[in-house]
Design goal:
Number of domains: 1
Largest sheet: 9 strands, mixed
Helix content: 25-40%
Strand content: 15-25%
Radius of gyration: 18 Å
Strand order of the largest sheet: 1-13-12-2-6-7-3-4-5
Bound molecules: aspartic acid
Distance between the termini: 29 Å
Number of helices: 8
CATH class: Alpha Beta
């Protein structure tokens, strides 16, 4: 299954209205009040059409599992899916032929962990959680992260599958690295869950951009960029061109906009707008966000057509197509 193939039910999300929200000035309409109406039930959302992954998180949530554990379960499905060429096993390698993975997690207490440029370990979201819970650190990189994983009993796995290797070898014939990224060559899984206790947790897992420079790290393991959660407000995750997400600290921005009173949809649109306004409307890379607040409201925005996200609530696991932000 290539990631663009649709498995779930596809709906055009009414939540994805094309709007440019007004940005609040420093003291206007700020609301720092704590939360609101209790959510109706557990909710799980994730980037793209990762139906099985979101269903795994939903199943866990329905049986009472906490939000972070459920979000990691979703990541694990794609990390093990060798057909998914941008997460975990079978992920596209860097330009030298090495698969390196990035992941992050954040829980309802504001605790977080991440791993960057990890080789030979499949379940890097779980590893990010181990960094968070079992070390005094937030982030571990490269060989150190791999060694730590092995000390905990994670097994050594060659992440480069025969198929990814073949595609990479084909790529090396021209070795043409296009700085302008085709939206088809990257698709992180980012998941946000709201559990039965009303707590939010999230996870993000990726092999990053295909044929990236050796050592390149994107937004996904950078807390505040690829993922951010404030359990009094909500959470956000990103996918797409990580460099642009990092420059605008996208997920943190979305949560802060929600804190100021914007809906998840308005906040996601504004975060996309911050990228678009800097670049002009000739942008040919993709960035997309999804957000979930404590009331269970969901928002999503993307630059270009083609981004979808999964939304589980009340027994229904649906895939929504997000309206593009740019008209072009
Ligand atoms: N955001 C990821 C990165 O830049 C890639 C993706 O989501 O497709 O590493």
């Amino acid at each position: 299954m290539k990631r663009r193939s649709f498995i779930g039910k596809t709906l055009v999300g009414s939540v994805a209205a094309l709007v440019t929200p007004k940005v609040l000035s420093a003291n206007e309409n700020r609301s720092f009040s704590k939360i609101h109406t209790p959510p109706k039930g557990p909710i799980s959302i994730c980037t793209w059409n990762f139906t099985t992954a979101n269903a795994a998180a939903a199943k866990a949530l329905e049986s009472g599992t906490d939000a972070l554990t459920a979000a990691i379960k979703a990541a694990e499905v794609e990390e093990l899916n060798a057909q998914n060429t941008t997460v975990g096993l079978g992920g596209a390698p860097d330009r030298e032929g090495t698969v390196t993975l990035d992941a992050s997690v954040m829980d309802h207490t504001g605790n977080c962990g991440s791993v960057v440029a990890v080789e030979n370990i499949v379940h890097v979201a779980a590893l990010a959680r181990d960094v968070m819970e079992k070390t005094p650190h937030v982030m571990l990189a490269g060989k150190g992260a791999e060694a730590y994983a092995k000390s905990l009993g994670y097994k050594h796995t060659d992440l480069l599958t025969a198929e990814s290797k073949k595609e990479w070898e084909e790529w090396t014939k021209e070795s043409q690295y296009k700085p302008i990224i085709n939206i088809e060559n990257h698709d992180t899984i980012g998941t946000l869950c709201l559990d039965k206790n009303g707590n939010i947790g999230g996870a993000c897992s990726t092999s990053g951009l295909s044929y990236k420079m050796k050592g390149r790290v994107g937004d996904s393991p950078i807390i505040g960029s690829g993922l951010f959660i404030d359990n009094t407000i909500g959470g956000a995750v990103a996918t797409g061109m990580g460099e642009e997400v990092v420059k605008t600290v996208g997920s943190f921005l979305i949560v802060e906009l929600m804190r100021q009173g914007h809906s998840p949809q308005e906040a996601c649109d504004e975060a996309i707008h911050r990228i678009v306004e800097k670049q002009g409307d000739t942008i040919d890379f993709q960035v997309a966000y999804i957000a979930l607040d404590k009331q269970g409201r969901v928002g999503s925005s993307c630059i270009h057509k083609g981004f979808t996200y999964m939304h589980y609530e009340n027994g229904e696991n649906q895939n929504f197509e997000v309206k593009k932000y740019l008209h072009s």
